[in-house]
Amino acid sequence: MHHFEYKKGVLHAEDVSIPEIAAEVGTPFYCYSSATLRRHYQVFANAFKKSQTLVCFSVKSNSNLSVIRTLAREGAGADIVSAGELHRALKAGIPPEKIVFSGVGKTRDELAFALKTGILQFNVESRSELEALNQVALEQNRKAPISFRVNPDVDASTHEKISTGKKENKFGILWEEARAAYDRAAALPGIEIVGIDVHIGSQITNLDPFSRAFQKVIDLVKDLRAQGHAITNVDLGGGLGINYKAGNEPPPHPEEYARMIETLMDGLQVRLLFEPGRMIVGNAGILVSRVIYRKSGADKTFVIADAAMNDLVRPTLYDAHHDIIAVKDPGASQAIERVDVVGPVCESGDAFAKDRDLPPLEEGDLMAILSAGAYGAVQSNTYNSRLLVPEVLVDGREFAVIRQRPSYEDLLALDKVAPWLK
Ligand SMILES: *Cc1c(COP(=O)(O)O)cnc(C)c1O
């Protein structure tokens, strides 16, 4: 469900026409819909109305300040994985007591900054991190609230690059070592145990891996409580998938996910935490691009777009499918041609679609690459010295540039000529 629709023959984001934005900011650009962001957040949060729940938006999926602030106003907390994301979450107005800190390699500086800020909890991923956090806490005369991220050794049945809950993945504490880790934490004066955490992967489209992992966590919570540990917060991570292809069977609705969890958790007396990213923002964003050229290969037609893999890397990195539509409604026309939609970057992997049947896209036409709100702009870079693309937020009839396109001066600003080359 999203708010990108044809109205009077042209694609709109809510009540704003895409060509109107393109005329003002140029292409390519990301465009997000506030109504979609709010709706997805509310659908997720309301699914858990009966439980005591905190929904911490996974900032790594889309870290634009205005996106985070839109969600903060709805009551969202934040799941962060770096000091930079903590700065963003705070500036966006997320209160520290709604922030959880995940990640396998938090540095001492990052731990110290987050502890001073007073975040809700650290999701600790190793014994070494535990010892480092204890020392940092003692230096500050504080106690650091922790959950261990445990690795349940469950196959999430998703792309290998976004699977995180198998024992060969770098994430979390080995299942067999979890009890000993809690005992060690309980003995450290700078540490306060508050809960447990699990996150098995991303773009998960079937409830089975979740329920297998969560059942293991519940059993562990009972064991840990029997050992005398105070487990109040149960953080079940993110990972719920979205639909990237029109016509595909939709992934489980948050209501189904919630009913499964409430059934499993029945009587456990915990505060539930979640870290959804993609489910909130994935379908709330599109990447708008213009066709620069068309060209015929030996037995292919290439549509060469002004956006490229440096702007949206998902197809290249994860073999991900993104639906592509023309901004001008093809309407009832049945015309279809089979094309590769590629970018200008000098890499054969720079393609948004291969052998895709699309309505004809002519030179100068605008297209929209759909479902680009999550892991899109955040993974963009300046490869080939291409400028980062702007981000635009729409709210009803209004739109605003929420990250501006840099200048070529900005692009070069951090490079320095070595003194011996002057
Ligand atoms: C990436 C990540 C998430 C968000 O995953 P989605 O699939 O976007 O919901 C949540 N928690 C952790 C620890 C992550 O690394």
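^ pyridoxal-5'-phosphate complex. The chain has a mean pLDDT of 96. The chain is about 30% helix and 25% strand.
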